[in-house]
Structures
1.
Amino acid sequence: MLVSHHPPCDYDRTFRVGRVRICVRCFGILIGIVMILIWSLPREPMEALGILMAAVLLPLPAVFDFTFHELNRSRSNNFRRLMTGILMGLALGLIIRIILDISVFAGINLILYIFLLEFGVAVILNRSGRLEELIRRYEQAVRKRP
């Protein structure tokens, strides 16, 4: 559960590497972060604005995919999870680069934006009655672990 953070009933959302399961979306996030940290960022004002907009928009596919899947509005799959994870990772990598190269204040605001997105997902799942089920599945999986 530490690396995959998915209970056995959700192992279809993981890659298996030997005996270790890795969350597909989180693996994509790591790929995206590494990609951005390898690239250098421009320092021109208009390019900085584009980077800020990308950091705002890139997390949305992952948030929508997770939310719609949990609400049973669409079926996700590992390819979609990997791709949306990479987009989320690109956004997080951009935020790291924004903090390092452009503005700590802007970076912190973008981190708060990500937290607000996640909070919004929790509110939506709670209002739909799906949050308790999600939490229950995870709690049961954790209790079964030695």
Note: Helices lie at 24-38, 45-57, 60-70, 78-102, 104-128, 131-144.
2.
Amino acid sequence: VAIAVLIVPIYDTVRVFTMRILSGKSPFSPDKNHIHHVLMELGLSQLGVVFSLAAVNISIIFLVRQLTFLGNNVLLGSLGISMLLISIILEILLVRKRNRKRTAAAIE
């Protein structure tokens, strides 16, 4: 349950560090790859980002509380897989939006 409470910041930190390392940058260098920047680039307002991340966090806490009978290993694995899927989906959406912007700019 403690990890479920902190899953959004843990997920964001691990995701950003991994992306920076894979691109050959220092994991501590600043950039705009944090989850709130990505969601804002996808069109959410600041308030929308806050409510979205809060809803995700509350949903995960609720699910973990309801599924504690599965055991810690299963829950941790499920959280990891869920966060990986969310990362993939967000990257696909972000790449599509950026491609649409490039296409629109090229047409003009």
Note: Residues 72-107 form the longest helix (36 residues).
3.
Amino acid sequence: MEELVSRLVERVGIDEGVASQAISIIMNFLQSAGPEDKVQQLMAALPGAAELLQGDSGGGGGLGGMLGGLGGGIGNMMGAMGAMNELNAAGLDSGQVQSVSKEVIAFAREKAGADVVDEVISAIPGLEQFL
């Protein structure tokens, strides 16, 4: 994940700690709301993703993960909003949230392939409006 952290620092202008926290929030949300098989494929292609999630003391994505766990489209949309709120609480403004999200998705497409990433995104109702 060091490569992605550096990319966020350079392209979005945030510090390393905030970048790491943002990546963790996004990955936890995807893991809790996305299709398990595709998310596993995605995480396997991202260097350091598994370690990041294992080392995350938030355990399950915080509010975004809890709301995403409600199930169905409404739960996933609420989970996306919860993840966005977590990103705001981490110190990102709305523009930075969108920039970070786009960079994380672009990085994931480079590493895992567009097909896998797009399947994860399309399987989570409402997620596209946050990207």
Note: Residues 57-76 have pLDDT under 50 and may be disordered.
